[in-house]
Amino acid sequence: MGRSSPVDLEAAIGVFDSGVGGLTVLNALRKALPNENLVYLGDTARVPYGTKSAVSVMRYAEQAVKALHARRIKAIVIACNTASAMALEHLQNCYPELPVLGVIEPGALAACKATRRKHIGVIATESTTNNQAYQKAILGIMPEARIQAQACSLFVALAEEGWHHGELVEQIVAKCLKPLMRGSESEGALDTLVLGCTHFPALSGAIAKVVGSQVILVDSAATTASAVKARLVSEKLLNPQQAPGQLSFLVTDGPERFARVANNFFNEQIDAAGVELVDIQHHTATLK
Question: CA dihedral defined by 76, 89, 235, 36, rounded to 10 degrees?
Fold first, then answer.
C-alpha cells in the first residue's frame, strides 16, 4: 500500500524511545540531517521497556507512533533497541505509507563490517537479548558469525543517573561483561561489541577500558542515522529548507527530570519549559 496523497516534505521525522536513551540517536540524526524537523517522544511514564513483555512493548510502541502521527510526520525512527526488536514489523504493518526504521539492522550491519574474526558480542537489555533480534540480524548478514549476548540492564540506571566514569562504574561494567570476555585471542575471543541499548553509549568510555582496545565498540546511532538519510533520499523525502530544522520534545511523565537527565545523552541543552507533557495511553492500540 503506497501513499494516497503527496507528502509534506517539511513534515517532521518522528523519533520515539521509552525514555532518554534514544537521544543518542537524535544526536546522530541531527548531525546527518541538520535541515530536518525532528519530534522526539520519550515514554517516560512506562520506562523501561526492556523488562516488559513483547505484547506490552508492541502496544506501547503503537500508542507512541499514533501520538507522533498526529503531529505531522513523514517518517518514524524507533530509537529503542527493545521496541525495534519487538515492534518494528508490527509498526511497519500499521503504517505502510510511512518509512519506519529501527536500530537493530543498522547496528548488525555495522558489527559485521567491523569484525575481524567474525566473533561478535552483544550487550543489551534483558528483553532485547532474549528476543535474539541482534543475533538473527547478524546471522542474516554473516551466517558464519559466532555471537555471544549478555543482558546488562543495570547499565540503563547507571547511564540515566550520570554514573559514566570512575572506579565503581568500571567494576560494575567488568562484572557484567565477565562472561563475554573469557577466552584468548587465539581461541577466538570476541573482537567486536555491539552496544545494543541506546543508553549504553554513555558508558562507552568505561566499557572500552574494561574490554580493551582490541575490541571495537559498535554504536548503532550513527549507522541508523545513515540508514534514515538513505531512505529519505531514495524516496525523495528530504526537506528542501536550508535553515536548521526545528526540535520538539514530548514526554509522558516528568518533563523536568527528562530535561535534567537528557544532558547525559544529548549535545544540546534542553529547557524543561519547552518539553511538552502528553498522554498517549488514550490512543487505542490494535493489540490488547
Answer: 10
The residue whose grid cell reads 525532528 is 38
Q: Which residues are annotated as a binding site?
A: 17-18, 49-50, 81-82, 198-199
12-102+222-277: CATH architecture: 3-Layer(aba) Sandwich (3.40)
Cβ neighbours for 54, distance < 8 A, ≥ 6 positions apart: 86, 127, 131
Sign of the alpha-carbon torsion through 59, 62, 68, 69: negative
Q: Name the grid cell of 283.
A: 490512543
Is residue 112 part of the annotated active site? The answer reads no
Instruction: Please give the annotated binding residues for substrate, written as ranges.
Output: 17-18, 49-50, 81-82, 198-199
Catalytic residue among 112, 152, 176, 197: 197
232-241 per-position pLDDT tens digit:
999 999 999 9
**Where exactly are the structural domains of the chain?**
12-102+222-277, 105-220
Alpha helices in the chain (DSSP H): 23-32, 54-69, 81-94, 104-114, 126-131, 133-141, 154-160, 167-177, 204-211, 220-234, 255-262
pLDDT of 1 reads 41
80 among known catalytic residues: yes
